[in-house]
Amino acid sequence: MSDAGTTMTLHPQPKGTEPRPWAFPAPERDVLPNGLTVLHCHRPGQQVIAVEVVLDAPLDAEPEGLDGVATIMARAFSEGTDKHSAEEFAAELERCGATIDAHADHPGVRVTLEVPASRLARALGLLADALRAPAFPEGEVERLVSNRLDEIPHELATPARRAAKELYKELFPADLRMSRPRQGTEETVRAIDAAAVRAFYRAHIRPATATVVIVGDFTGIPLAETLADTLGAWTGDSAQPRTAPPVRADDTGRVVIVDRPGAVQTQLLIGRIGPDRHDRVWPAQVLGVYCLGGTLTSRLDRVLREEKGYTYGVRAFGQVLRSSPDGSGAAILAISGSVATEVTGPALEDTWKVLGALAAGGLTEEERDVAVQNLVGVAPLRYETASAVAGTLADQVEQHLPDDFQAQIYSRLAETGTVEATAAAVSAFPADRLVTVLVGDAAVIEEPVRALGIGRVEVVPG
């Protein structure tokens, strides 16, 4: 077959436009007559609206012996109200195309709603009912407690979760809530009943101490009226601000081996206490820790994964536990990964060598530039969705940060030099101030680890 008569039309190659300046969205702030603080952020085109409710019910407010009651309360918010049974509430949410989720952590309880913009008013009404008059029926609370008890053995069997449990126990004194599992132990969860959940709710959940963040496309939506008719109907008394206990920690260098006989891998978790986001070192620390272990091209990965083949990946990170402008906050700084059992000693030795080389020679300009591009350059993609923006704004509320903190942090990251980032990374992981938790076969790994001399070694049951 001949193509002599065929013609081809070539269209011009598309050309990219000039990049537009980007900044993290700035919210507007209001207070409803019932005392509820509202942060709202109009995002044109975001037809799925995200709502985050920040409740001042931190884990350290849980009654003694009832660790986990905040988690059970959070899960029970969607288990019925004074208007709907649990089944009816779920059906109403489904009709809205909405989802509600909730969880408890050290700073407080977070309730999350996502809903199409066209059904916002109806879904906010359901959310308001859940916050205003949750039923906390005994049968549903018993089911949630039973579910939580079923989860605990699975968590303890997971090496990463078991390592985290041991690290927090080691770092913090027993009288500090941070030393114990966020969602409670088998003993404390078993003691929780509907009466305990209701008492915790009455003591801590009220609009005057809560903040709602709402992000999405509000075109055609009378937002102020909708909020007033729904969340504005939630009433409650005022309360004095809580005083959080100071964070105390002991990160003297030492090793704890959680014995798992026959384990073919060792889970590593190396950590210490560090500053929160109110500290001026935070941007440099974020940059330096990212260079150390934030991505596949980081120093730890290059040595432990690419050069030595010890691991599929190892990461260094900072995680805020509680943030406060008065200096009582804290973050965990950690290095995490898993290695084959027989190379546990060499992997730890090489980790300490990487930290030593960082202190001796510093980061390179190239490492710093790549980290800035990864952290700052991709930010517009990270915040494409309303839920991502709402979550970050809620984090700022929870950590007592100004509304423009996230917008400012990117500028500060871009301005941070290599010397500053190096100093922050070295300060974050001093070789003699690291608590090392190893979940693995003690019979194989104990002696090689002792030979490293990185601190006293203790073996505990798995």
Describe the structure.
It is a single chain. The chain is built from 17 helices and twelve strands. The termini are far apart. The chain has helices at residues 69-76, 86-96, 120-132, 138-157, 159-171, 186-190, 194-204, 223-229, 282-293, 299-307, 344-361, 365-377, 379-382, 386-398, 405-415, 418-428, 442-452; strands at 28-31, 37-42, 48-55, 99-105, 108-116, 211-216, 254-259, 265-274, 314-322, 330-340, 435-440, 456-461. By secondary structure, it is α+β, with helices and mostly antiparallel strands. It is globular and about 65 Å long. A hairpin with a 2-residue loop joins strand 4 and strand 5. The strands form two sheets. The protein has a six-stranded mixed sheet with strand order 1-2-6-3-5-4, sandwiched between helices. A six-stranded mixed sheet has the order 9-10-8-11-7-12, with helices on both faces.
Q: Tell me the fraction of residues in β-strands, as a range.
A: 15-25%
- What class would the helix/strand composition place it in? alpha+beta
Q: Which runs of at least 5 residues are low in confidence (pLDDT < 50)?
A: none
Order of strands across the main sheet: 1-2-6-3-5-4
Head-to-tail CA distance between termini: 74 Å
CA-based gyration radius: 25 Å
Question: In total, how many beta strands?
Answer: 12
List the helices and strands and how they pair.
Layout: E1 28-31, E2 37-42, E3 48-55, H1 69-76, H2 86-96, E4 99-105, E5 108-116, H3 120-132, H4 138-157, H5 159-171, H6 186-190, H7 194-204, E6 211-216, H8 223-229, E7 254-259, E8 265-274, H9 282-293, H10 299-307, E9 314-322, E10 330-340, H11 344-361, H12 365-377, H13 379-382, H14 386-398, H15 405-415, H16 418-428, E11 435-440, H17 442-452, E12 456-461
Parallel strand pairs: 2-6, 7-11, 7-12
Antiparallel strand pairs: 1-2, 3-5, 3-6, 4-5, 8-10, 8-11, 9-10
